[in-house]
Amino acid sequence: MTSNFHGIAPLNHLGVIRAEGEDAVKFLHGQLTHDFALLGIDHARLTAFLSAKGRMQASFIGFKRSPTEVWLVCSRDLLAPTLKRLSMFVMRAKARLTDATAEIQLFGLAGSTIETIAGSAKPAWSKTEFGHTTVVHLPPAAGQPRALWVAPLGETAPAGPELDPALWAWGEVQSGVATLTAPLVDAFVPQMLNYESVDGVSFKKGCYPGQEVVARSQFRGAIKRRAYLAHADTELAVGTDIFSPADSEQACGTVVQTAPAPEGGWDAIVSLQITAAEQGALHVGAPGGPPLALGALPYTLREDI
Questions:
Q1: Cα–Cα nearest to 229, from 186, 182, 185, 265
Q2: What pLDDT, on the 0 to 100 scale, is given for residue 248?
Q3: Would you state the pLDDT for residue 91?
Q4: What is residue 304's predicted lDDT score, i.e. its pLDDT?
Q5: Spatial contact of 62 and 72, defined as CB atoms under 8 Å apart
Q6: Are 291 and 282 a contacting pair, CB within 8 Å?
Q7: Which regions in the chain score pLDDT beneath 70?
Q8: pLDDT tens, 182-230?
């Protein structure tokens, strides 16, 4: 844990897809893993866009700017292909999807800075409007509250102490809530990143691409991989394989999201076979690679959906 996890960080690695039109909410409701039809103006959603086989193509923080406009915040390296693929399904729907990244500012708020800017910290996925500015409260990290500050260009940027973007990235890892990036497209069903346990999947909504695979994984006990927090003394790269002594031929997991740890080494979110995680003695990159130590998640995996 670090006492320096306070301040404001620019989030230049993120982009925004804007969905507008009479059918924008209905369209996204039918494409993403969470319920947008029942989404109130005072909440946001963690959600994912899947292939027909249930594999994640992108993850988003989504919220309504109005009853006919939704903003989807995602990793910038996935925005263009995701926008193209989503747009293919619009067809006759009265909805228009555009890349709004160049028109929008995004900052991360951590620690006491949230009180100064947004009044107080609130539960994860709560949303507050301040004029044209939106603050989405995120899951905490390192014992500190976090929030996403989003506003059109031209709005006054949030004022306060600067937070190193690398430290923000570390907080993202510590939250245990993974953001999908380009190296990992098509690699996971949502449960492999614990999305059903961090409110990223609704099992009560209507159909969406990949829904049957997600439901079957959940209700037939087919979840074989989970996300974990991990630490290594050497640099960790997204997409790197993880090996267990039980099988030196085939990887048992993947590095999902990484950041340098404030006290040295690298921290990461990893997706692992549950049996390998229980056995321990994990190595990165090769069976005899650098050792990887698992840590405790900051949330409990849900058993009752």
A1: 265
A2: 85
A3: 86
A4: 58
A5: yes
A6: yes
A7: 1-3, 304-305
A8: 999 999 999 999 999 999 999 998 899 999 999 888 877 778 999 999 9
Tell me the two tokens of residue 58: 């992108």
Whole-angstrom distance, CA of residue 236 vs CA of residue 54? 27
Q: Is 268 exposed, middle or buried (0-12, 13-18, 19+ CB in 10 A)?
A: buried
Stated as kind and residue range, the H or E segment containing 65 is strand 56-66
Q: Which residues contact 101 (CB under 8 A, 6 or more apart)?
A: 15, 16, 76, 79
Neighbours of 219 (CB within 10 A): 10
Burial class from Cβ neighbours inside 10 Å (0-12, 13-18, 19+) for residue 52 reads: exposed
* Structural contact between residues 83 and 49, judged by C-beta atoms closer than 8 angstroms: no
Q: Are 187 and 56 in contact (CB under 8 A)?
A: yes
What is the set of domains in the chain, with CATH numbers?
7-175 (3.30.1360.120), 224-297 (2.40.30.110)
Q: What is the pLDDT of residue 280?
A: 83
pLDDT (0 to 100) of residue 105: 97
> What sign does the dihedral 47-285-297-196 (CA atoms) show?
positive
